């Protein structure tokens, strides 16, 4: 065999070894990922509870409105408040509501900025003491709740503090962190609920997309296992740093 033939043979062998190595790394990397069965964006919610029941005489907001901290939501004319005042009880205002003892009214306010949802205190309606009259999706509190069906082995590889990729409806991907994990075993599988927090979801640039209820896909990065786990992690960490992966 000539030297040129030998070099070609060696080159072919090296190419095959390189291809197999790359495919092995890719396969191992795929084994460290788990895509969500379902996933949606959620927010922290504040329930507007009625300290005093009565009839709604003023309505300042409606479902879908954006409010700021301290903004008026609705005013209630409360017989309960009047009775308390007549009995010598003192009703004091708070961050959540302002009391007018003389008029017998209570004006409820937003204790945090956000978006109004499930608004029940419509003008002319009755509000029951202790009941929830509205909810506020708190601004800047977006996170993802994702559900997975995992084998017991893969569930053991889900770690709080690990990273996750969130694919938005516009095909943009943002990075998040696993902050909570819940599990329920069904038919030998781990039905797993994961909370993923991401600062990117709370930016003004993604405000339109990152609304409560928006469907997304969340891919978890599981703890690598096996003899090639460390090498695989080094390669893909490098690719992420240079923006290839």
From TrEMBL:
Keywords: Membrane, Transmembrane, Transmembrane helix. SUPFAM superfamilies: Single hybrid motif. InterPro entries: Single_hybrid_motif (IPR011053). The chain crosses the membrane at residues 7-27. Gene3D superfamilies: 2.40.50.100. This is HlyD family secretion protein. It comes from Microlunatus kandeliicorticis. The lineage of its organism: Bacteria, Bacillati, Actinomycetota, Actinomycetes, Propionibacteriales.
